[in-house]
């Protein structure tokens, strides 16, 4: 277990445990209240540039598969959960959530009171923040970087570069 820190731009600090990739990531902190669908959230282009907090207390219990993705790669910058499931149980599971995040370079933190974090975001509005797994983390050194973070040109970043045709689409459209 590696320690990690989540720090908000208002100075609020949460200590937790790192999972996924190691390092630091700055982003806009938002929350999602879904009980399922974490894989869709991770790959949903509307979350581009954001660090997503899942409010449901246990995330990762059905693993990750290739069928439930919303785009070709994760779009989130970071991921925050109360508890991550280390041994998923689902016949479609191809890998654990941790392995998926490591493979895609997404920094995540668990053992956070996501209810308290969500309450802060509801009361004060969306905030920027940082997740760090670095041992020598000092918030005062990061405040300027956190405050300067801006999501730039998200449509350009998440839009595919070439046209794709999905099998079955035409058949489905013909039923309408």
Q: What does this protein look like?
A:
With 176 residues, the chain is of the alpha/beta class. Helix content is 26%, strand content 26%. It contains six helices and nine strands. The protein has a seven-stranded mixed barrel with strand order 1-2-8-6-4-3-9. Strand 3, helix 1 and strand 4 form a beta-alpha-beta unit. The longest helix has 11 residues, at 114-124. It is globular, with a radius of gyration of 17 Å.
List descriptors:
176 residues; alpha/beta; 7-stranded mixed β-barrel; two-stranded parallel ribbon; 6 helices; 26% helix; 26% strand; globular; disordered C terminus
Distance between the termini: 52 Å
What is the SS-derived class?
Answer: alpha/beta
Number of strands: 9
Which percent range describes the beta-strand content? 25-35%
Strand neighbour order, sheet with most strands = 1-2-8-6-4-3-9
How many helices? The count is: 6
The biggest sheet, with number of strands, parallel, antiparallel or mixed sense and barrel status, is: 7 strands, mixed, barrel
Poorly predicted runs: 171-176
Gyration radius, rounded: 17 Å
Assign a percent range to the helix content.
25-40%
